[in-house]
């Protein structure tokens, strides 16, 4: 056997060997186990026995076991000896004493050490009543429950000293076995983490697996955080839901508590650059079991001190009742600022409470008790005076007093428009001071952009129309210039050499019968088609010629002239020279 006694052999004391020990002449030693006397199955444990510096031998004795002494004559330490168990089993469970010897004298036996092995049975569950959030100095009751018929339950407080309390089990009508352990008053300076076990009375050192740990949170010591939700607190089944706990105190961890629930959700905290700490609690796809009132707390690692409770947040699950209420706006959906508006929620089915929710608002919905009138359950939600903050989309729901967090299907949405207001339908703007400028939405930019676009399009259309018209007129002018003049109109110009001069004028004899045979003014050409220097003018002048002849000064570049034989004058005498006639068409 090695001096360290790495394996604890069969221990005990026979009657014969007991008579060989002269016990009681020396002070008793001290016995303990490391890391503790409650040892999981197959885990190592060391039993220490401390006596005197003059001790020459140590003995370890296990009660109710027929075997021999476990002796350690060669000591590694002068005043104590250790006995190691490398793999804890039910064989090693029991009560132990130790002795030491100086020369021929033996010490009195040490106090008993009860070595317990755990993991022999299925684990129980541990809960707290009324809540694991306990104010400083408060009292709670812990409940250990199991479907296994244990005779006794053990409550153990974790820490440097393993404290435990034992209670007889009781059987509930549901065939469960349970025991209650009152705890308190709790103080913030200590850690309050517990586990419970169950065992049978015939094997008191063979315990079950431990329950999950339960930590009591001592609240109200530190500053409270805030609990919020990104979307509306009215949710539907299948929708994803995440709650966020925030604080300006640098907390290391956060917990989320639901009213009436025994379990807490724990999350490690994160730190933001803005100096805030927080934690996100994703609750997954929403179901009816997510309904209820939530609060959150912040705390530090390795401390039982926690913050005060955040404000409550109610999560409402819609679509849980078969009926659908209706929603009406009176006098109408479009109202002016300062006027009054009423939203009337009605239902043919029995309803205890009506709730009015605004789309996109994180605030809790408004609640009103229903009134029965004319065969309908109804409630009137009045808004007065109306401001731009009231614009938005509204829905109403029905609920019952027995299940206030479960709602009916939503009504058809109703939209309230505030005349003279613009912008989006989000939450109302926050005014920081009386002199703050009124909030303006971005829609006036849209109006300016639309107006500018319309004006630009109109100008572009006019420009395109003008260019098309000019192009068509140019084509018409070219076609007329290319076509030959009809023969009855005569030659276009005189063969006189003076016709090549742009500003040279011609004098034509115009008879007093000019509408038929005289000068015809051609108005078929628009003035826009004329050449820059093609000004046409007719100037009637009085001369010494006979009164039946009128002279017209004409610009030869704009007139189509014809030379014809001189017609006989009224007197019957032929003219001395041929006359030049300018045909002016007048229409």
UniProtKB/TrEMBL annotation:
Comp. bias (Basic and acidic residues): 479-491
One of the record's GO cellular component terms: plasma membrane
Statement: the UniProt record of this protein carries the keyword Cell membrane: yes
InterPro entries found in the cross-reference section: Ig-like_dom_sf, Ig-like_fold, Ig-like_Receptors_ImmuneReg, Ig_sub, Ig_sub2, Immunoglobulin_dom
GO biological process: cell communication
Region feature (Disordered): 475-502, 526-545, 560-587
Compositional bias annotation for Polar residues: 492-502, 560-572
Signal sequence range: 1-23
Domain of life assignment: Eukaryota
Alphabetically ordered keywords of this record: Cell membrane, Disulfide bond, Glycoprotein, Immunoglobulin domain, Membrane, Repeat, Signal, Transmembrane, Transmembrane helix
Subcellular location(s) per record: Cell membrane
Name of protein: Leukocyte immunoglobulin-like receptor subfamily B member 3
Organism: Canis lupus familiaris
Gene: LOC611446
């Amino acid at each position: 056997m090695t001096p360290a006694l790495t394996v604890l052999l069969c221990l005990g004391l026979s009657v014969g060997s007991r008579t060989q020990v002269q016990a009681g002449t020396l002070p008793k030693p001290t016995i303990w186990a490391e890391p503790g006397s409650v040892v999981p199955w197959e885990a190592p444990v060391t039993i220490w026995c401390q006596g005197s510096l003059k001790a020459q031998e140590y003995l370890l004795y296990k009660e109710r076991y027929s075997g021999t002494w476990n002796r350690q004559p060669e000591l590694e330490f002068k005043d104590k000896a250790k006995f190691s168990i490398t793999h804890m089993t039910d064989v090693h469970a029991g009560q132990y004493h130790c002795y030491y010897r100086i020369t021929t004298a033996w010490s009195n036996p040490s106090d008993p050490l009860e070595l317990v092995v755990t993991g022999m049975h299925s684990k129980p569950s541990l809960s707290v009543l009324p809540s694991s959030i306990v104010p400083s100095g408060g009292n709670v009751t812990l409940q250990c429950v199991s479907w296994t018929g244990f005779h006794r339950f053990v409550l153990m407080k974790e820490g440097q000293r393993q404290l435990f309390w034992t209670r007889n089990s009781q059987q509930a009508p549901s065939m469960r076995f349970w025991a209650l352990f009152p705890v308190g008053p709790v103080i913030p300076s200590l850690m309050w983490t517990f586990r419970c076990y169950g065992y049978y009375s015939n094997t008191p050192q063979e315990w079950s697996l431990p329950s999950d740990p339960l930590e009591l949170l001592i609240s109200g010591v530190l500053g409270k955080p805030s609990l919020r939700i990104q979307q509306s607190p009215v949710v539907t089944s299948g929708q994803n839901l995440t709650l966020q706990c925030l604080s300006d105190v640098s907390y290391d961890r956060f917990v989320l508590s639901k009213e009436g629930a025994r379990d807490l959700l724990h999350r490690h905290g994160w730190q933001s650059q803005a100096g805030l700490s927080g934690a996100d609690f994703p609750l997954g796809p929403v179901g009816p079991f997510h309904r209820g009132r939530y609060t959150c707390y912040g705390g530090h690692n390795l401390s039982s001190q926690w913050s005060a409770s955040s404000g409550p947040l109610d999560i409402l699950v819609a679509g849980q009742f078969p009926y659908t209420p209706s929603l009406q706006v009176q006098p109408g959906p479009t109202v002016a600022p300062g006027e009054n508006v009423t939203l009337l929620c009605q239902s043919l089915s029995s309803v205890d409470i009506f709730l009015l929710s605004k789309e996109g608002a994180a605030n809790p919905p408004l609640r009103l008790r229903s009134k029965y009138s004319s065969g309908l359950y109804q409630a009137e939600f009045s808004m007065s005076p109306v401001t731009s903050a009231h614009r938005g989309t509204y829905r109403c729901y029905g609920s019952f007093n027995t299940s206030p967090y479960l709602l009916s299907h939503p009504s058809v949405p109703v939209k309230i428009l505030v005349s003279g207001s613009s912008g989006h339908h989000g939450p109302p703007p926050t005014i920081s001071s009386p002199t703050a400028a009124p909030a303006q939405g971005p829609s006036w930019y849209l109006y300016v952009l639309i107006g500018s676009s319309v004006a630009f399009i109109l100008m572009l259309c006019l420009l395109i129309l003008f260019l098309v018209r000019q192009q068509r007129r140019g084509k018409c002018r070219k076609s007329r210039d290319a076509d030959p003049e009809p023969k009855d109109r005569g030659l276009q110009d005189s063969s006189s050499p003076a016709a090549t001069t742009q500003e040279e004028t011609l004098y034509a004899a115009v008879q007093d019968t000019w509408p038929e045979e005289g000068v015809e003014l051609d108005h078929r050409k628009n003035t826009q088609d004329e050449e820059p220097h093609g000004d046409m003018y007719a100037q009637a002048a009085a001369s010494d010629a006979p009164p039946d002849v009128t002279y017209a000064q004409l610009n030869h570049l704009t007139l189509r002239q014809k030379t014809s034989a001189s017609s006989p004058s009224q007197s019957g005498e032929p003219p001395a020279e041929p006359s030049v006639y300018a045909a002016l068409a007048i229409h």
